[in-house]
Amino acid sequence: MKILFLTNRDLASNYALNWLLPELSNTNEVHLWLSAKVGKTSSPPQSLKSVKFFEQDLFNEVLSPLISASKKANGYKTFDGLRCFLSSDIKEVNQINSPATIDDLHTLLPDLIVSIRYGCILKASAINVPRLGVINLHSGILPVYKGVMATFWALKNNESEIGTTLHMIEDGTIDTGKIVKISKMKVDPHQSYLEHVLALYKQGSVDILDAIERLASDGVLELVKQDESDSYFTFPSEKECIEFTEKGFVFVDQQAYLAFIQDNYL
User: Fold this and answer.
1) 8 A C-beta contact, residue 75 and residue 266
2) Band of the pLDDT at 41, cuts 50, 70, 90?
3) Residues 6 or more apart from 238 whose CB is under 8 A from it?
4) Which residues on adjacent β-strands are paired with residue 180?
5) Whole-number pLDDT of residue 242
6) How does DSSP assign 35-104, residue by residue?
7) 166, 180 in Cβ contact below 8 A?
8) Which CATH number covers residue 237?
9) Phi then psi for 166, rounded to 5 degrees?
10) What's this model's pTM, rounded to 2 decimal places?
11) Lowest CB count within 10 Å: 37, 73, 109, 137, which one?
């Protein structure tokens, strides 16, 4: 099977790819296109700037060179290090629906597209290219938590569980396609927002591997139509970020972050 991964250049996406690519590259032709960011925030709250720093700036610009130089056996790889599992060079693609990119998609002609935290909304011209369709891993339980930063909103709303939803992308609407699988985990009030997000992508990656295995053997997936829901979440405001911390949550626990990098990458 020829599989195209669309992901964002951030820590959670990289963590998921380290679970996925070694497993898939032995029996599939795998390609990777990256977006530079997710969503648009003209003046983000300081808390969100901090999250971006740890998710992207620190990981990509400072830690990745150290990880590449590390001699740790079986350590996770940077984006550049993942090239050994790919059948083509990594591409940065921030305009997936442009005529030039659609031409590239038709040239590549993947059987399946897998989207994980990708920064662009796919339209019909892209969705219709792969014969097996497009599956997306959303870090929220659908249909209740559509939109961005679903984990943040679930924690802020005092949910006892958070989760991921693996679903089909069927049109240009967001987080509305038929569901492949929902996986849940208990909230740990002692963990940060970023720790919860990273934990979700481990089980989510297992769900992707299972879906691809079923597609390879049966050619189809058992799908469940989403219930109707008008809920949709956007990036939180400064006030909502403050309310989040007043509940006792933190966005990033720096000590836990460094331990995660040390345990998995260095």
Assistant:
1) yes
2) low
3) 45, 46, 47
4) none
5) 97
6) ES-SS--SS--HHHHHHHIIIIIIIIIIIHHHHHH---TT----TGGGGGG-SS--EE-S-TTSHHHHHH
7) yes
8) 3.40.50.170
9) -95, 120
10) 0.96
11) 73
Give the tokens for residue 54. Answer: 């740890």
Total structural domains in the chain? 1
CA angle, 11 then 15 then 17, to 5°: 115
pLDDT in tens, 67-106: 999 878 789 999 999 999 999 999 999 999 999 999 999 9
C-alpha to C-alpha distance for 185 and 196, rounded to whole angstroms = 9
Taking residue 173's Cβ as centre, other Cβ atoms within 10 Å add up to 10
DSSP state, 147? B
Lookup: tokens for 32: 């990777």
pLDDT bin (cut points 50, 70, 90) of residue 257 is: very high
Domain holding 157, by residue range, is 2-264
Order of strands across the sheet that contains 2-8: 91-92, 29-35, 2-8, 112-116, 134-138, 161-168, 179-186
Sequence-ordered strand ranges (E) for the chain: 2-8, 29-35, 91-92, 112-116, 134-138, 161-168, 179-186
pLDDT at 39: 72
Pair 95, 75: CB distance under 8 Å: no
Backbone angles phi, psi at 121, to 5 degrees: -90, 120
**Comparing C-alpha atoms, which of 150, 129, 165, 170 is closest to residue 236?**
150
225: phi then psi, degrees, rounded to nearest 5? -70, 140
